[in-house]
Task: structure prediction
Amino acid sequence: MEIVVPAALTARHVQLDGEAGRAWSAGLPALAERYLEEWQLRLDGGPWHGMVSLVLPVVRADGTRAALKLQPVTDENAGEGPGLRAWAGRGVVRLLEDDPGTGTLLLERLDADRSLSSVPDDMEALRILTGLLGRLVALPAPPGTRRLGDIARGMLDDVPATVDGLGRDGDREWVDTCAAAVAEVAGEPGDRLLHWDLHYDNVLAGDREPWLAIDPKPLAGDPGFDLMPALHNRWDEVVASGDVRRAVLRRFDLMTDLLGLDRPRAARWTLGRALQNTIWDVQDGSGRMNEVQLAIARAVRERV
Result:
């Protein structure tokens, strides 16, 4: 079976890394063939892809269905293998094999066509996600995991350039507000093993458990820093409620209650995520704070 790299994945890598990204994408078939042979796998269908990874459904020599994940090694995903190994399948996809040198992972096969976004009731979906998050953050991060304290200090260092890059006075004031909140908690960043990107499309249906998390970007820190993805996901349902502030706080309060978090502290770390996302947006050329991030910051600020 021929390994075909989706054009959209190649385009994404070209966007990120130019010709180097195109070359990496072109080398994917050969890289896949290497691990098909080395780990005694056979292809079992067409490819899937995320933002940067190619995922191939495969079958192991013993007949077990699995998924071969190919991705470039970055600061964000370098800890994926160690993080998955630490979780050992508790609430998350199980790691079967990995090669840290290339970032290649062999994972248990989940249902790529059924994510938590398919659950009609967004609050039911949020309870499921929060239950998984509670299991994930129950573990201390293994040695070598990126640390939230370092991330927080980097964000605070980036505030002046971010403020200079924003065109609206109100946005600048909100960046300062978020930065002040981060500064209050940065000295105690926590040591839990965070997913960092746990939203509804990063939870897939499985056989071993009904739902399992995928695609972590492991980080050692405070669980309050892990709430933001679930607050801004399925945003159309927040807007459809007719009261954005109330809907955001309903989500935030549910998650902090189920996780047993200190609410003002979690609010400060959530403002930190709004700051982080704004820093990234400005670095990508945006001259204004994203309206969704702004709406969440306005609502969550009431819980500080």
Observations:
- The radius of gyration is 20 Å.
- The mean pLDDT is 96.
- The CA atoms of residues 13 and 132 lie 31 Å apart.
